Each structure stands twice: as structure tokens, then as C-alpha cells.
Amino acid sequence: MGAREFTPRVDRERDDGAIHTLRTRWREASLAAGWPFPSDWALAEVEEVCRAFVMHGETAPALNRLARSRAQTGAGLAESLQDLAALHAVLTTPPGQDGVPTAVDPDALPVDMLRDFALAWADVLSHQVGEREAEDGLTGLATTAYLRTRLREVYREARSREQRCGDEFCLVLIAPDLSKATGWSRLVVMVLIAEVIRLVFDSGETLAAVGPSVAAVLVRRDDRLRRRIAATAWLVRRRLAVDPDLDDTGPVRVWQERLPATPEAAGDLITHLART
Questions:
Q1: What domain of life does the native source organism fall in (predicted)?
Q2: Calpha distance 231→225 (Å, rounded)
Q3: Is the pLDDT of residue 97 over 70?
Q4: Residue whose C-alpha is closest to residue 37's, from 156, 125, 153
Q5: Between the CA of residue 42 and those of 82, 149, 241, 242, what are the distances in Å?
């Protein structure tokens, strides 16, 4: 009786140990095969895949979620398939053989596994390409989705150089008080702001509409930044002041927002701004 009471715990500990072992061997094989950013490798979906294989569950859905997550975090298809090949090599290496598998070859992947994984990865990329080409129809600024994409790219670039993204880039935010504005005047204000930031930030910066009443500029931090922020604030206020139809517009805030430590926190910041 007592032995049976402890069996579930023993089984669970054995399964957890097997999952940990698979994850460790997979990571070592992937890094040895050329995975470029060790700190990016571990994802929640990696754990799901390991658990599915150890527990003999449905592995295809877990692998598809991993493919989508790899694409969303910026991993290319070639390196994602190489990582999948590392998993396959580990799974097909005899359990008693220690060390990292020497043959990590995407061409050795089963056709159905490779096809499903590549399609899931490509589905995310297709969606991202559509977002990158999208512009806000009213202002001509980039969409919030494109700004998120650019943020992921600059964080990845900074991490590859072992630098903090916030030391290189920041957001310049322009937020008019439209609480008393109605109808067409709200739209006109955002169009005017878009014209100003295109005039001031004309060196390839990402200019985006973030929600209905915030514009953002993803810009490098340099000696010109303070002057450009001041020029933006002055031009916006001047242009609003000369239009009597915009008297109901409240104060316009223009400020510099330091980028947080992680791309996830930057995404949360954009979400917060879009709701203001």
C-alpha cells in the first residue's frame, strides 16, 4: 500500500528527469551545430516539445508551436531547421551513447516533420511581411505592428553586439490631449503631427502611429536628439495654433522614452501607449 502511494511521485520525477536530459542534450547539439545566440535558444515551447516526446504524446502540435515561436522571435528558417535537426539527431542517437551527436543534418529530417515545421514558420513570416508593408491609411505612418517588428530587430541587433538596446535607441513620443476634441479635428491633429515628424526625423527613422492619439519615432540616441525633440514640440504647437478649428485640442506632450531591458517589455510599453 505504502509503495503504491509513492509511485506517482516516482514516475513524475523520472519523467521530469528524462525531459531535463533531452532538453540538455538537444541544446548542446544545437549549439554545437551552430545555433548563433545561446541565450535565445530556451523557449517555453522547447519544454513542451521535450515533454511531448518523453510522454509519447502528440508531438506535431508542439513542434508547430515551436516553429511559430522561433519565427516570432526572429530566428531564420535555416537556423530553426538546424535546431530541429539537432533534436532529431539526439532522439535517434542510441540512449547509451554519450556526447553530442556528430551528424546534425536537416536533410535527415523526416519529410512530414520538416514540411509541417517549415510551413508553421513560414506562416508567421508571411504575416509579418504583411505587417511590415502596412501603413496607417490616415497618416501614412507605419502601423503599430511594424513598430513592434522593428523593435524586435533592433533588440536582436544590439544583443548580437552584446550591447543594451536602450543605450543606442529610444522612442520619441508625441501625444496630444484629444479628450475634448471631436470628430474630424482628432484626425486632423494626427495628420499634422505625422507631417511634422516626417519633416524633423528624415534620416530613415521608423515613424509609427501607436493607437489613435500617439505617434512614435524609433530613433538612435545622438547629439541631435534633444534639438529634434524640441523642434518637434515647437512645430506641432505652432501648426495647431494657426488652425482655429483645432482650438479644442489640449496640450501636446513630446518626450523621450528609454527602451526597457527586453523586447518583451518594449512590447508591453507599446501596448500601454496604444491604449492611452
A1: Bacteria
A2: 10
A3: no
A4: 156
A5: 15, 21, 53, 55
